[in-house]
Amino acid sequence: MSEKITGAEIKAMREQAGIRPSELAKQAGIPHYRLSKIEGGTRKLTETEAALLVAAIHQIIADTISRQAQVQALRPAEAVRTAEAPEAG
Fold this sequence. Notes:
4 helices, mainly alpha, single chain, 0% strand, 89 residues, 74% helix, elongated, 434 Repressor (Amino-terminal Domain)
């Protein structure tokens, strides 16, 4: 990475994406307590950690978009089944 990223920027990205700290730490493969210290500015962020955290944020966002697309794809099929089902009564 040519530009330095800060813990505060990681925290801002995480919060904007709606990602829990524990979820990000797990996806990035770093201990939760370390992420807390990085985000709080009491621990320096290494280039490796920055790369892991940014990649994890991107992956979580991509997974969320993929799940949403799958749900959206199912909705029309469910609507057809509902329309074809006989009315109760």
